[in-house]
Specification:
With about 325 residues, this protein is an alpha+beta fold. It contains 4 helices and 17 strands. It starts with a helix and ends with a helix. About 0% of the residues have low confidence.
Length: about 325
């Protein structure tokens, strides 16, 4: 019995010694504050640390009543740290998301001070229809000032300071997120977190742009189509772009407001322009053929009917 106890003691001692010599994984401590543009602490903000090399959420925390957060993650990765400021019940965003993009793998410590701005929302619905082509449903929404400048360049979203293992301390600006759709730099990290049960659903979507409230802005919609037609009807520039809101009549929304914009009408306007262009091309071809002796009066009459239909559609 004594020998058995002695053996257990020896084995336990060996295990402790073995554990003690296993090197600990170096960690990065990321801390800071989330405050509103009025200087007030923002509680209930989700702070997410995303490893962009391995597409993995490494850390998630929530700000306290003082707007403070602190999270520890493994060292050796390039991180995106982004915030999702939520309403008190956590059901939706209250302020525009922001992010810091760290480019170094040897981070030791980082302190980030986020300055967040009240949010309003632009929701895009509908589809793009194109004569002779296909639309794959991928687009980018860019939030601009009424003068056409990206809002991320004019809003002070805060700053981060950091220390590195193999270099001096550095600073990097916090970026207010002003690109949405599939080009949103934090959408994929968010989706990864949702699918793995690390983040709550319903805060970000590819068809919703989060804009600063009480600010004159326009939202640029930009997409591409695959033109399946043959020359001379195929267009070289297959980009479709327009703005939601206009420079002289920009959007100006209150905090929490949502505007739903259906892109179908704009798409139909573009279709009519393309059909009119095709009619003009067809007229040109008919004229060239008639010059060398072809009789194409019936075809010319059909084109005239098509042109009449286009003009009637414009009036509607």
């Amino acid at each position: 019995m004594l020998k058995k106890r002695y053996l257990i003691f020896i084995l336990g001692l060996i295990a402790l010694l073995y554990i003690s010599v296993i090197p600990a994984v170096p960690q990065v401590t990321i801390r800071g504050y989330v405050k509103t543009s009025e200087g007030k602490p923002h509680t209930n903000t989700l702070v997410v640390v995303f490893d962009k090399q391995n597409y993995e959420v490494r850390g998630v925390t929530v700000t306290d009543k003082n707007g403070y957060f602190e999270v520890t993650v493994p060292r050796g990765y390039r991180y995106i740290v982004f915030v999702l400021p939520r309403t008190l019940n956590g059901s939706r965003l209250s302020h525009v998301p922001e992010a810091v993009f760290f480019k170094h793998e040897d981070l030791v410590e980082a302190t980030i001070n986020f300055i967040v701005y009240p949010a309003a929302f632009i929701k895009v619905e509908g589809t793009i229809r194109y004569v002779g082509g296909e639309w794959y449903g991928v687009y980018v929404l860019t939030v601009l000032t009424a003068e056409g400048t990206r809002v991320s360049t004019i809003f002070n979203a805060g700053e981060a300071t950091y220390s590195r293992e193999f270099a001096e301390e550095g600073r990097v600006k916090v970026e207010l997120i002003d690109e949405y759709g599939m080009w949103n730099p934090i959408l994929i990290p968010y989706i990864v977190g949702v699918r793995k049960g690390q983040l709550p659903p319903g805060l970000l979507s590819e068809n919703v742009a989060v804009i600063p409230a009480k600010t004159k802005v326009i939202v640029q919609f930009k997409t591409s189509i695959a033109d399946r037609r043959k020359p001379p009807f195929r267009v070289k520039d297959n980009t479709i772009a327009f703005t939601i809101g206009e420079p002289l009549k920009p959007l100006y929304l209150s905090p929490g407001d949502t505007v739903v914009y259906n892109i179908e009408r704009e798409a139909l306007r573009r279709v009519m322009e393309d059909v009119r262009r095709d009619v003009d091309v067809a007229y040109s071809i008919i004229e060239d053929l008639e010059k060398i002796g072809f009789y194409l009066a019936p075809e010319r009459a059909e084109l005239s009917k098509a042109l009449t239909l286009i003009e009637e559609a414009k009036l509607d």
